[in-house]
Specification:
Blueprint lengths: L3 E4 L11 H12 L6 H15 L8 H15 L6 H4 L1 H6 L10 H11 L2 E6 L3 H10 L6 E4 H4 L6 H11 L6 E5 L2 H10 L4 E4 L12 E2 L10
Parallel strand pairs: 1-2, 1-4, 2-3, 4-5, 5-6
């Protein structure tokens, strides 16, 4: 029986839009670089994700600068990544709208007496900024920064269980990333559902819903 639901945030509750690519475009324009922003950001994101799983733990803002510095060296760009990264850091606080199915889903959980929380790979201040901007009240908020671990590291999910006292069999993780929000929780025995808003994961081997309104049948 599901008593507690853990939601990913970006791409699940909040629409991330194209802010990261736009920030990358501004950075490259400022450097008079002809590199393609979408391709550069994809490479940047990949390097940052790899760095997330190397000790010691660093915040997302620090990792953005570190991984940008690596790409600057790769492409022979003579610039200070700690300075040039600013448009990306600013984008972490840009407007990201709430998906239209979120409020009703949370109201339904309240009606059923089911606890819920946000569990997100992000820095704490940016996530709290978005929740305040969206006027969204969530009882519990967990970030990689306050857990000192990034998804899909088992410590991310295990620390949440330790801090809440929730039983793993009574939890349900919901998110849009197969690796972080389904395979990660499943690896420690936590039930999980993929939120596939774009319908891009056909024949997925775990439960999958196209919108949060489909969550009800799994509760």
């Amino acid at each position: 029986m599901t008593r507690h639901v853990l939601f990913d945030c970006f791409g699940t509750l909040l629409d991330t839009g194209s802010g990261s690519v736009l920030a990358t475009e501004w950075i490259l324009q400022n450097l008079s670089s002809s590199l393609d922003p979408k391709a550069f950001y994809a490479e940047w994101k990949k390097e940052k994700k790899q760095m997330m799983h190397t000790a010691p733990f660093r915040s997302e803002k620090v990792l953005f600068a570190e991984s940008l510095g690596l790409l600057f060296k790769r492409y022979g760009i003579q610039a200070d990544p700690g300075v040039e990264v600013k448009p990306m850091i600013d984008s972490l606080f840009a407007t990201r709208p709430l998906f239209p199915d979120v409020r009703e889903t949370l109201r339904e959980l309240d009606r059923r007496g089911i606890d819920y929380a946000i569990a997100s790979t992000t820095d704490t201040d940016s996530l709290l900024h978005y929740l305040k901007e969206a006027e969204l009240s969530v009882p519990l908020v967990f970030t990689s920064e306050n857990l000192q671990a990034y998804k899909p590291d088992p410590r991310f999910y295990q620390t949440i269980l330790e801090q809440t006292g929730w039983q793993i069999s009574e939890c349900l993780f919901v998110g849009d990333s197969p690796e972080d929000d389904v395979f990660g929780p499943a690896a420690i025995g936590m039930p999980a559902i993929l939120l596939d808003r774009k319908g891009s994961h056909q024949d997925f081997p775990h439960p999958c819903i196209g919108s949060l309104t489909g969550l009800a049948e799994y509760l």
